[in-house]
Amino acid sequence: MKVTDVRATLLDVPYPVDFTAAWTPHITLSSRPVSLVRIETDDGLVGYGASGRDEAQEVNEIVAPRLIGEDPLAIERFADLITQGGGRWLVDMALWDIVGKSAGKPLHQLWGTYQTRIMAYASTVAASTPEQRADDALRYLEQGFKAIKLRTHYPTMAEDVRLVELVRDAVGERMEIMVDANQAGAPSSAAGTLGDPVRWDYDRALRSAREFEQLGVFWLEEPLPRYQFENLARLCNSVDMNIAGGEGNSGIHEFYWMLRDGVYDIVQPDCTMSESLTSLRKIAAMAEMMDKLFIPHHGNTGIGLAAHMQLCATLRNCPYVELILDPPYRTIESYQQLFGIVATPMKIDYDGYLAVPDGPGLGVEIDEDLIEIYAV
Known about the structure:
single chain; 376 residues; alpha/beta; nine-stranded mixed β-sheet; 13 helices; 12 strands; globular
């Protein structure tokens, strides 16, 4: 079997309503870029991959010419090519989709199944009031969710703590609570809900972690800038609560350093941002060896989520997957389906679990007729 065509398309996918993320309150978005790659073989198989970035041109100009005529099953050979092409991990994803389709099985069955459904946590994305988040948590609980992630973006620690307190008071012990401080990126990514820049130093991170620990928070995510490894490890060693992060780190070597040095209890790579799906399998194995949890970032689209689901189905150290949910800004349908391009969104069952897609490859069906509607 040989690759006969590689074609990436940049899509401009609209949000249901204009959207302002909690971590960038100075920016309002009406749509998002999505790069979708389609790889075809001489056997008539088609593999798909997607990311939440503008990278179609690099795929078409750098990676595609060197993949034509190659064996799509020889994925490990293409690691350097994809890296040299700027880390276009969506290509690796599409190749794995072909691997599964060539065998007529979902990828997790080829890799070795451990679980066929995974607990999903509802991941909020917009800044909101504590009262509203308490109401949201109760609504998600009624839908079957057993876990929720909150965004702490208030100017003061007291306000952050109150957010978690009100949600805990509302749901009691019926839901796990995760907290994301979003402190890993540039200074603008940590602006407060009132518009004033807020940067956590080690002292605020430690005091916040101790308060959240008393409220039974399962993890605190990205409490300090991404490369403050020494301070992150120091924080991780100072509290019993889990410290999590890694979505923006890139390369196996960075995850090895973090695992080796005890930077995080939970690593959260993303097969569309951090490294390839191939590499995430290796990172997950390293994490298991070091008795750490592997809980990936959300994958940016339903295609990325499906890729993570296939991988997480094979892992002993992955108790959760992230499911973006924050109506009206992010609905399950808009996040996963790309407005219909992905045929069927994954939805939780009454116990809060997502079933691992059981179709061949990634298990995701694409409506190609709709791609041109959103093509840039």
